Amino acid sequence: MQYLALIYNTEGADDVEWSTLIEQYNEFSQAAQEAGVMVGGNALQPVSTATSVRVRDGESNITDGPFAESKEQLGGYYLLECKDLDEATAWAAKIPSARYGTIEVRPVIVFD
After folding, report:
1. Euclidean distance between the first and final Cα of the chain, in Å?
2. Which DSSP helix (H) or strand (E) runs through 25?
3. Coil/strand/helix, residue 24
4. Is residue 84 part of a domain?
5. pTM of whole model > 0.90?
6. Minimal CA–CA distance to 101: which of 4, 8, 2?
7. Total structural domains in the chain?
């Protein structure tokens, strides 16, 4: 079963320097790949680069920025292949930003 681990954090508010955080992410990614659970993953550009698209009554409305204001922003994700939610949350707890922000784990619906 696949799970999406969404990484939320307050931009620029980590209690660790950037090079250390990147090293921690590289170590996590390598461990997840070696265990065969990592399907994919990417970091996202800062929330200031976001564009939101809404269609209402057939009209597109495109605005700069995220859809919702919040303290934590979506900064990246991992797509994990795990036997169950317990395994997925155990891997999510190992994601470095779990110590500074929030990792949301959601099952992926696979359409045939």
Report:
1. 14
2. helix 18-34
3. helix
4. yes
5. no
6. 8
7. 1
Q: Is the CB of residue 5 less than 8 Å from the CB of residue 98?
A: no
Residue 95 lies inside a defined structural domain of this protein = yes
**Domain range holding 56?**
2-107
Integer-rounded Cα Rg, in Å, for the chain is 16
> Is residue 83 situated within a structural domain?
yes
Q: Tell me the CATH number at 65.
A: 3.30.70.1060
Query: Which residues, 6 or more positions from 84, have their beta carbon under 8 angstroms from its beta carbon?
Result: 1
Cα dihedral across residues 65, 66, 71, 73: positive or negative: negative
Which residue's entry shows tokens 């495109």? Answer: 62
* Owner of token pair 């922003």: 73
In a domain, 72, yes or no: yes
pLDDT in tens, 37-67: 999 999 999 888 888 888 999 999 998 876 6
- Angle CA(82)–CA(88)–CA(93) in degrees, nearest 5? 145
Q: How many CB atoms lie within 10 A of CB 88?
A: 24
- Token pair in block for residue 61: 């409305």
Label the pairing between strands 102-107 and 2-9.
antiparallel
